[in-house]
């Protein structure tokens, strides 16, 4: 007899996004949802199911597992920054059951099939969540792109500005044309770090205080994103069959270009990040490099424009862009924002961060689930198995209390280097349990991972 596990609750978020009483039946041996019943079934009707396999969430929500489509796990090569073990534990603690790993910051980067194999070897046996991989586009690796598609990468990322690591140089327009020519007849996606540094961008002003966030913000103006997206949308017209994607949009000034491209029918998708929707430049203290990311966090008015774009569908989804480093590279003691590594650590916090802001705007859980689960799964090519509670899908479920409050402390964080701008915040929401393909992988802040084992697979 199949090993069944039954989930019941009064607020189960099914594929239409609306919480309702439901019963979700899982075959643990296959890891799939085998049936979903309206209403809460009685315990007596499942006499063959052990008590340990009867999960009653009561009034708490049962959500589909989150798909975080933008994560830097950095292993192999920079495992002291992050790694598969710590990064996926952090993900699971926040209800994330699948992450898609970015191709840079590991050594080697995911720019050839051999390098992808290196990364997969490093990951095996370490993953608490499922893990998929993006490939990378760098100058001269065009011949490796179709083999990477065949090897299973979910798409590709490139930089239009220096990435910050020597192993992953940025591309120019000629490089892009070559890559897009290779990829145009495939079903993959090309993702852009959309900042374009032109030779005329160099500042002629006197040096400013490197401990001021305003100094960093002035060094990465919105125009860099606007110029990049102008180039991307112009090239897109030459390769209209290839889906393109803008990662971590921060500049509201670029929204008209995105809206025009989408209105013209081009297959363009866009993500933004938790930090751009929850933080604002005016409130960043002096000498706090943990707030540095690229592109930068901008002003309140910009944040509100991003929320409007998210709500009207111009922006498709929300991701973490979890980009950690060792403490010494963050220059915490010096407070030197300008020379610090640019990246924000978020894994484990995203659902509660977004929910806290969404509630202020009377945005329901249906929209949050769409942005964090449905659209990210679609973007990463996982929509046939992840992101929704549906029969035949992976049984990735999260028991979550939307009304609890969670204070962000170092003890709560499960990623390797416990530096985050969110420390000290009181957030709405609490992940109580995370299940991956029907198996428990996280038991809440009190019990954590005690007695559990990593069961994540490589997608």
Determine the CATH superfamily of the largest domain. Metal-dependent hydrolases
Average residue-wise pLDDT: 96
**What is the SS-derived class?**
alpha/beta
- What share of the residues lie within helices? 25-40%
Assign an overall shape: globular
What does this entry show, briefly?
It contains 13 helices and 17 strands.
Q: What does this entry look like structurally?
A:
Its EC number is 3.5.2.5. One of its GO terms (molecular function) is zinc ion binding. It catalyses: (S)-allantoin + H2O = allantoate + H(+). InterPro entries: Allantoinase (IPR017593), Amidohydro-rel (IPR006680), DHOase/Allantoinase_Hydrolase (IPR050138), Dihydroorotase_CS (IPR002195), Metal-dep_hydrolase_composite (IPR011059), Metal_Hydrolase (IPR032466). This protein is α/β, with parallel strands linked by helices and 459 residues long. Helices cover 27% and strands 22% of the residues. It has two domains: 98 residues, Urease, subunit C, domain 1 (Roll); 315 residues, TIM Barrel. Strands 1, 2, 3, 4, 5, 15, 16 and 17 form an eight-stranded mixed beta sheet that branches. A six-stranded parallel beta sheet has the order 9-10-11-12-13-14.
